[in-house]
Amino acid sequence: MGRQFLSSTIVALTLSFPGTVLAATLEVVVVGLASDDGDVHIALYDSPDAFPESDGMLAETEVPARNRRARAVYRDLKPGRFAVAVYHDENGNHDFDQGFLGIPLEDYGFSNGATVFFAPPSFDAAAFQVSAPETRIVIDLGN
Fold first, then answer.
1. Domain total of the chain
2. Which of 15, 92, 114, 142 is deepest in the core (most CB within 10 A)?
3. How many C-beta neighbours within 10 Å does residue 90 have?
4. The domain spanning residue 101 has which CATH number?
5. Cα atoms in the 13 Å half-sphere on the side-chain side of 138
6. DSSP-assigned states of every residue in 78-118
7. pLDDT value for 45
8. Do 23 and 132 touch, CB atoms closer than 8 A?
């Protein structure tokens, strides 16, 4: 009984230290791509003030489109609220192409299925919780 009590105490103390944070992994899967051309740009945000500006990203990943899907994995995240913005750069020019009046010419989407109505959605509309050890979200561009 003494050894079990000691082990339980060590685990409890380790988890109670404020500096002890379990790392989380986030998997983002993008489905519904129109083609396998180009890359998919996946931007991860952890701040409402930065979302969805390109200079406010926590991380950005460019992944090739394969079988009309794309996948990115972010490791060692501190658990919390995040939001994701994606676009399918079919022509491979590394820009989110827009036409007259800023109308998008490439498919795009946000976490939580957050929608655009004359402006990008708010962070709160796109935000989701990432918790340890793993969180997986799917963003469907085929809607």
1. 1
2. 114
3. 19
4. 2.60.40.10
5. 7
6. PSEEEEEEEEEETT-SSS--B-GGG-BSS-EEEGGG---SS
7. 97
8. yes
Whether 13 maps to a domain, the answer reads no
Residue 1 lies in a domain: no
Is 16 a domain residue?
no
Q: Which of 51, 56, 119, 116 is nearest to 84 (CA)?
A: 51
The domain in which residue 42 lies consists of: 21-140
Distances (CA, A) of 70 to 20, 94, 125, 140: 33, 16, 23, 11
pLDDT tens track for 11-58: 444 444 455 568 999 999 999 999 999 999 999 999 999 999 988 899
In a domain, 10, yes or no: no
Band (pLDDT 50/70/90 cuts) for residue 143 is: low
pLDDT tens digit sequence for 103-139: 888 999 999 999 998 889 999 999 999 998 999 999 9
What global pTM score does this model have? 0.82
